[in-house]
Amino acid sequence: MDKLSKKPKIIVIGVDGGTFDLISPWAFEGRLPNFQRLMAEGSWGRLQSTNPPLTPCAWTSFKTGVNPGKHGVYDFYSLDENRELQVNYSRDRGFPSIWQIISNLGLRSCVYNVPFTFPPEKVNGILISGLLTPSVRSNFTYPPDFKKDLLGAIPDYRIFPESRYSERESDIRAFYDDLIELIDIRYRTARFLLEREPWDFFMMVFNETDFVQHWYWKYIDPDHPDFSEEGRARHGGKIFEVYRRIDEHLGRFLEFAGDETLFLVISDHGAGRFIKRMYVNNWLRRERYLHLKRTPKVIFKRLLYWMGLHPQAAVNLAFKLGIASYSSKISYQQRKVFLSRLGFTFDDVDWKRTNAFSYGCYGPIFLNSMENSHLGIVPDDEVKTLRQEIAAKLMEIVDPERSGVKLVDRVWTREELYSGPLARLLPDLIYSLDNFSYTSSTLFAIPSNDIFSKPLTRKSGDHRIDGVFIAYGKGVKRGYTLDKPNILDVAPTILEYFGIEVPQEMDGTPLREIYA
Q1: Domains of the chain, with CATH numbers?
Q2: What are the residues whose beta carbons fall under 8 Å from the beta carbon of 399, sequence distance 6 or more?
């Protein structure tokens, strides 16, 4: 690839779920030479993600520079005021992205595969949407006619893995091979954009680090309950190999970037072991905060659950039969209909008797308050007391299979974490279960009768607060370690580099300490 001109530019490479817990030792051993170079010759630090460290929330906070109380995106899905499940798309965001701000000032952007950019927004340049894009059959590029050029240049282009992990050896290997192929597709697409399009700001994201850590973590972590030496011997090198392939491409990006380019590597969150699901709505039912209706439909579903026929059993069977990958070909509306017939949904909740419910990947708790819904029953003057009561009970939760170990590290109220006009739509109580090694369920309101369950999708890794930030280029301090940079600081840093005034509404501040 040709060198760039000396006009100041920015390249941002996203390494989804990237963690220095893995990168640092591999880099300093010389096994990731380009990460090693970036850290030795640039500035770096553990990037503090959003709380919880969840993909929609984190990437949206990155690209807007504001907290979820202002942009309003918290999870993959949301519940509207009628308690109906809705997909969170980028159009629901309450604050402009950095590429919108840059475009409005005449700078040109190429943005590729950043999660939560579907449907693609209008930019001065090119945008190819990432996670939540339904398929390549959808309109996933801006301008729309660029899709034809993209698929013509990259005929094997795809957005997601075509296979799915399961415990079958063939699926373990097929899913990994799929990730390696995707890394190559990501790089070839990025190179196509860099060489064809004029740009001032370029960004792309590798998702494959997040995918491989979700399903192969148990093969490298001796403290994981499912770790085995046999598993490590067979698959213990797969996470490293994904990082190594990306490291190779980082070297090619660096070669292309030129001396006047600010080169950033970031992740939306870190990674660590994942142990179990906790179905918080079942815990709330046990504690008498959530109640189901007494209609014939609900009574029939209760009978099905008692017989062992529930969403968790259906998912387990799909993985056992090796047909779980077909779920990706089922539309959201089709899955929604299937779930409503088989499992308990929020439509089955008796809102006239329910004081609290949980919705979201990490099991945050919402009070059924009169302020936020016409279905609410909790008056404003009882919110504080009810929060305190539930928070105290949360701190006593134990996993009976782990010798009664208390799981909740800390509980936060909404006001401690979020601020802004959309904060009232966010959870009342947020908490960490054993440093986020336990999660809950998003699609299923109540997947089974259990409070604790093995992961439905056989995941063994999940997210952590500490992510990755690396800055490299002319004027950047060499070998400098930042003290807890925040994901909200990245957008202001980018804008200030371009000489653009940082909007007062942004919660982050430019990371000026990276410069010599």
Answers
A1: 9-273+464-514 (3.40.720.10), 276-454 (no CATH)
A2: 276, 405, 407, 438, 452
